[in-house]
Amino acid sequence: MQIRKFLKLAILALMLGAGLAARAANELDTAQKLWLAGQRQQAIATIEQALKATPDELKLRFALGVMKMETGARDEATRIFTALTQDFPDLSDPFNNLAVIHAGTGELDQAQSDLEQALRLQPDNAQAQENMGDLMLRLAQRAYQRAQGAQIAPSDALALKLRRTQDLIKANTAGR
Fold it and tell me: How far is it, in rounded angstroms, from Cα 147 to Cα 122?
């Protein structure tokens, strides 16, 4: 009799879990539609409300992090993505998004570390590869600036490299 009761409870738990997952997917879809319609705060509120019912739902948490990042709430986005890297250490995308945040605040070395981890986890992550390329340009710019500053006399060759690197950075950011 106890086994039968346990099985009924287990089946009920599975059904409840499936129902919560379906609800989370519906809430995410709703939030994405709101976001695309320009109703950003309402989209965030929808995700936050859905996370109250399913606080461990990966897709909802990730979407909230992206939305916070896009609205400039970098500290909150950093907290969300950091938690995701701890809860799901095998996922590449939270590391990639942390790198974007760190690069945006000038923390280039931390961004590089984040991207290296993202690419260790998923070497074919196209977005992380692109972000690494963009970051490498910024690291090159920093290195050329430092080298130029360490020279006794300005170097025309370094100045040319720096100018070309800056032109590439401008061209990359203009297309976004």
Answer: 34
How many Å apart are CA 50 and CA 61, to the nearest integer? 10
Measured from the Cβ of residue 104, the count of other Cβ atoms closer than 10 Å reads 12
Rounded distance, CA 128 to CA 115, Å? Answer: 6
The backbone torsions φ and ψ at residue 111, rounded to the nearest 5 degrees and listed phi first, read -60, -40
Q: Which of 46, 96, 88 is nearest to 67 (CA)?
A: 46
pLDDT per residue over 90-134, tens digit each?
Answer: 999 999 999 999 999 999 999 999 999 999 999 999 999 999 999
- What is the end-to-end Cα distance of the chain in Å, rounded? 64
pLDDT digits (tens, 9 = 90+) for 45-71: 999 999 998 999 999 999 999 999 999
DSSP 8-class letter at 91: -
